[in-house]
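Field guide to reading this record: the first block holds the primary sequence, the second block holds the structure written as C-alpha cells, and the final block holds curator observations. Each block starts with its own label. This record concerns Large ribosomal subunit protein bL28, catalogued under organism Acaryochloris marina.

BLOCK 1 — SEQUENCE
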Amino acid sequence: MGKKCQLTGKKANNAFAVSHSHRRTHKLQEANLQWKRVWWPQEKRWVKLRLSTKAIKTLEKKGLAAFAREAGINLNQV
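BLOCK 2 — STRUCTURE
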C-alpha cells in the first residue's frame, strides 16, 4: 500500500528546501498519514484505514459511511 490517504487521496508533495544562501534542493513533503481502526456500524465491524489527519477530523464530523460514499470507496474490500 502506498503513502496515500485512502479516503481523500492526499499524497506527498514535491518541494524545495531553501537554505539561508537561497540554494534550493529537492525534498518531499509527506502527508501526515496514520493507521486508524474505525468502527463501521452498518457491518458491525472494525475497518483499518490509512488516513491523513485531516481525513480523521472530517470522518468524526461526517461519519464513515457518508465519507466513503463521497470518496467512491467500497468498504467491503478494505
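BLOCK 3 — OBSERVATIONS
The two ends are 12 Å apart (CA to CA).
The first helix runs from residue 53 to 62.
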